């Protein structure tokens, strides 16, 4: 695949990061080197292999469907400067 | 003094715990000026806990000073995972593991320095507003990472102490080895991750670092309690059989500094040699693809609204989030976000992320086959002694990642592993690493008592 500056810019936009021109240039070289090295994973056939999304098999964990104690409104808002009338305040949506 | 002996003295009221805690805090502050092991020293909390213990000296850890890696939440103490993006964040709750320790009378003395979110092997990738920890044996060298502050402080303090660290790809045993102490990374899911500021959910494990194996034995059962708040927390108990009959040295791991190899082999009486070709060839690439994919997802939540670094609300959603994130993350965090976001993008996900998950299955199978024959697998912990800051300056990111070659295997597969000091090479500590099958931590502890 072709990894170029435009692809890095697109990925950065998706990830909500502003990169400088020099960062884009630096990351481009480094990403190519890293992905080239990691392409070793293509050497092995995994067609019939199940993925291990966890290192230990874990079955679905459910809890009782009952109301439990949660953070108070005051606690939930304790770490933000951006609050009004007991709610979080965010930037403009439209 | 070992923790157990100290705790007994506290319970017998032979030690004035308030006076002792003052001494510990004074020493920590003094050490921190030269070595940068703490992002914050929680003096008020520690003294309040000491007062409570002095009135009622109860609990399996009564009065024991414990430090906590910065990525593990401590109520009302700034917890940043070493990142500027979490500046001023004071959790309104304790991580389950922290609460378990406090319930047994532990005294929390501070949050230890680390690579930002755990993104590093040397603790030099600290957040934009943080200081780099220095090796206690030689301040021109790194502590290792990412739990550098935990290992460095444990090594240097003259007081009984346990540090609670965290490993994703080797971040407990790496710095413990470089700083000459013992570190245990438990089975994935044994210790609750509730309240851990996560790096990579399928890889993160919380574990202890100490000078003494008996301290690890003391604290592990307190840490390892099933927690309904963490859906990956195991209900299974540890295997009580702690006897080791057969050991194998992993052949591919002996390609390290000659003196380190000699120390490792000298430590063992009787051993076989085993080859793990899949681990050697694929574990590093698999590990990093999974770690970066999961971390880029985890880091998506930092947007400057609910907690952490915040700015004046200006511009659109996109503009505000981008502005906060761009000024809060360091370069290594940005690099990993870019790589991980790329590896999960439509069209690439199957080729990278899913493929890595499938190879993980094959690597787990390779280890499991080895554990049918052997109780423990052995390797050097790190291929080199702690390098100098000047030596790692010119390494490319890939060369940095390669330093984890011996530790990513057990981390990728959630296998418990431990490092112990085996002596000095050029006046710097070297470590031996034992790996056990899932839930066989008792074998790791027992072998290190010898």
Question: Which secondary structure elements does this structure contain, and how are they paired or packed?
Answer:
The complex is a heterodimer of chains A (94) and B (450).
Chain A: H1 5-14, H2 21-38, H3 73-76, E1 83-84, E2 87-88
Antiparallel strand pairs in A: 1-2
Chain B: H1 3-11, H2 17-35, E1 38-41, H3 43-55, E2 65-69, H4 96-103, E3 107-112, H5 148-156, E4 162-167, H6 173-178, E5 182-185, E6 205-210, H7 213-223, E7 247-250, H8 258-267, E8 272-274, H9 277-298, H10 317-328, H11 331-343, H12 350-373, E9 376-380, H13 389-392, H14 397-402, H15 408-412, E10 417-425, E11 428-436, H16 441-449
Parallel strand pairs in B: 2-3, 2-4, 7-8, 7-9
Antiparallel strand pairs in B: 1-3, 4-6, 5-6, 5-10, 9-11, 10-11
Helix pairs in contact in B: 2-3, 7-16, 9-11, 9-12
Describe this structure in words.
The complex is a heterodimer of chains A (94) and B (450). Chain A is mainly α and 94 residues long. Chain A has a domain at 1-41: Histone, subunit A, CATH 1.10.20. Chain A has three helices and two strands, in the order αααββ. Chain A has a two-stranded antiparallel sheet with strand order 1-2. Chain A starts with a helix and ends in a 6-residue tail after the last strand. Helices cover 40% and strands 14% of the residues of chain B. Chain B is built from 16 helices and eleven strands. By secondary structure, chain B is α/β, with parallel strands linked by helices. In chain B, helix 8 (258-267) links the parallel strand 7 and strand 8. Chain B has a single domain, classed as Amidase signature (AS) domain (Amidase signature (AS) enzymes, Alpha-Beta Complex), CATH 3.90.1300.10. Chain B has helices at residues 3-11, 17-35, 43-55, 96-103, 148-156, 173-178, 213-223, 258-267, 277-298, 317-328, 331-343, 350-373, 389-392, 397-402, 408-412, 441-449, and strands spanning 38-41, 65-69, 107-112, 162-167, 182-185, 205-210, 247-250, 272-274, 376-380, 417-425, 428-436. Chains A and B meet through helix 1 and helix 2 of A and helix 9, helix 10, helix 11, helix 12 and helix 14 of B.
